[in-house]
Amino acid sequence: MGKITGLNTAVVTPMYDDGTVNYDAIDGYAEFLISQGLSGVFVNGSSGESLLLNTEERKKVLRKWIRYADRLNILVHVGHTSYVEACELARDAGTLGVRAISAMGPCFMQPKTLEDLIAFNAKVAASAPDTPYYYYHIPIRSGVNFDMTRFLSQGAELIPNLTGLKYTSLDAFMEFKCIRLEGGRFDILHGKDETYFLGLTMGAQSGIGTSLNVNAPLFQKIVDAFRAGDLTEAANLQEQANRAVELMCRYNTIAGIKEMLSLCGIHSGPCRLPNGALTPVQKADIKKGFYELFPSA
Question: pLDDT (tens digit, 9 = 90+) per residue, 111-125?
Fold first, then answer.
């Protein structure tokens, strides 16, 4: 299929006030993201509170998003602490024809060796052998942190559909090595909004970011400036985008982006516990900051 291109965002999972999933809200949400120029969505990832959902909920969420596969690349996180559940989610996604599947390292009883991590991923990927597979490298969440160049090189021998990484780490040296590995063989999706410009300079073709839920047009300007060779402008635009990232992360990243989405007319409800709700004061602060950043919203 080739490497994934364009702007992609990690979507949230809409909830009702009682913490149950609001599947019906996904339709309006999808149309909003399409209107913002996004090329794809990463479903049931960290921003989607995936490990706080059960397997059936995650399947139902994906079935809502797959309806937009003609207008969006649908990438789905199938990771789980149990490879049995992860394999079930991978099989299900594969039958639906998603653009790619991805799984982070198991965050409970984390693998002690790279070989164990590869073995875990091999089981998951084999459940959807015809679907591109991206390992989701996010050590701050999973607690799993190995040399990703070794994972790619050794993993490719056991995982025929291993396509690349969703790389969500501030270790730019390792990311650069992965991008350049074997002449650029693997697709490395840049996963840190605040260093998107850096990812482009290192050779990343695309990325997946949470703040792009509300800020995609600005990120497109970063890409356009970079491609035009105006690196100073691209850096200035990145600095501007980072103000929205800082606002999103001020209290609770997922609650923050849900609140910012609500200010765009996309009401996705609260987070599921143990992610607590924002206080009225915190919501007011985000609202003030949001309209300072996006006065025309």
Answer: 999 999 999 999 999
